[in-house]
């Protein structure tokens, strides 16, 4: 019988990509959602998913949905950066409890939030974690809890990556800021300093990496961490240039993100306050060192940037009919 994976957050960007990739590799895919009927309407492309009703904030729901699973992928995040401490920590704890009870491997998608200036510009898996932000400190706490649990028997896999992009990455900078979904491309907004490098993770490649790691369970240590290199652009603005070239609009303007307005309104707009805290990620060149991943897998799944951008724009409805 094929192995079963429970995906928490299957209607999100990474969760959706993972459902497709794990299914393609022959896994049975199960997903937790508060309203499975609504989830099926939202994502008819995920017809192969075994939807289970439940809430990630309810321990019993997660535990019941994880029954018989070999892997639990925790791909859920509080929307809009809101209430991370009140939501992110309990959700992860419930997923970890369920995975431990089933003897399953817990997979957590990580990011670069938990690193500070003493670890930049190239991040190794064991780099010091001294974040300068509140969300970074919560990320450190999340990973530390999983490492402590692994000492007691939980098998953990953390895969850290850069900013997500893909045909459906609803909380990504690519989809919410750089382009306007559902409209042919007329301009691109870039949030960073043009000549400062930036790391991006194309979601199908990241999901493919996770399934390849999961399928080498016998070789994984109990507590495993890998960095996914993805697409690192030495000139960060190169992604914006690739977007307009791929869309056939090389003359389209590249606009600046209104950081001064975000700063001005941060005291009264909670989302702007949370976004403003992460501005440093667009001002510093931070690259993930993926040598450990390459050594373990032999290669990293990597779609050429132009192809990844073209697929993403097509999925978002940003390409004009030809």
UniProtKB/TrEMBL annotation:
Gene3D superfamilies: NAD(P)-binding Rossmann-like Domain (3.40.50.720). Residues 5-220 form the NAD-dependent epimerase/dehydratase domain. It holds the Pfam family Epimerase. It comes from the Bacteria. This is NAD dependent epimerase/dehydratase family protein.
